[in-house]
Amino acid sequence: MLGQIVLGEILACPSAKKIDSINFCLLDVSDFERIQRLLKRNTYGADQNMLIWASWLRMHHQNPQWVQHVLKDGCWQGLDFSVWDHLINWEDKANIKVIDTSKLSLNEVAEKVAAWIHENTLLEKGSASNLDDSLSHNSKNIMFENSFETYAKKNLNVIQNKEKILEDLKSREPIFHHPRKFGRTKQDILNQMCDEFWEIGASGHVYTKQDILETLLERYNDPEYKDLWEAKDFELIQIALDTYLLTYVLIQDIRRVTRRSTLWRRVNDSWKILFHQGTIIKS
Questions:
Q1: Are 35 and 106 within 8 A, CB to CB?
Q2: 61 and 26 in contact (C-beta within 8 Å)?
């Protein structure tokens, strides 16, 4: 499972030549529904550029000849496009499945993807033919259905859990800007940080846990301090067990725009900040 990657890139990788067959699934959606989902997600890409990219993907997975420079220009030198760039279709290189998710719920999409994976796994590895001959036909079907159901539920839980974590962490960002919600005392602030916490400011300066503590106590006790901000374009990536990287854009006082990155760690059922960095986009 490879997320945001294109079939032509996979086949151009040096190691692709060692793979007997490739099964590729493109999760598609209508243009209107795509924009609606992106707007609801409140991250990025709800624009015409995204629709152009989606249109190119549809054509690429039907016609290898279609506007190849999209992949080739500025790519990694190690990619070898000669293995497919002369083809008129993908039949000899990959089995392609397109799933239109426009009218499907999240559960239904997860079930279809899990079914596609399971079906191809059985076909490729010959798992069905290797089952004990003494098993009845009905027993084999039951085993297949139970295995599929378990796989679908497992993958659906992962998707739903990530969405829950994203919403939870979004409510805590920007960090240290919610004293009414998470407290303003010294202990309240310390409870939000890991022992190893440190930060790189927009200036490039490194701040320690003690630096942040002193700054926040002064800020929280200043009756003249005004905190005007807007956070958007959130992206979440799990990088280790119970550790997540959350990135977003922060707009402060209308004029100052920075790109923010926070490493969050789950400690004893509580979220704590491990690291934070801000980079100025516009000031």
A1: no
A2: yes
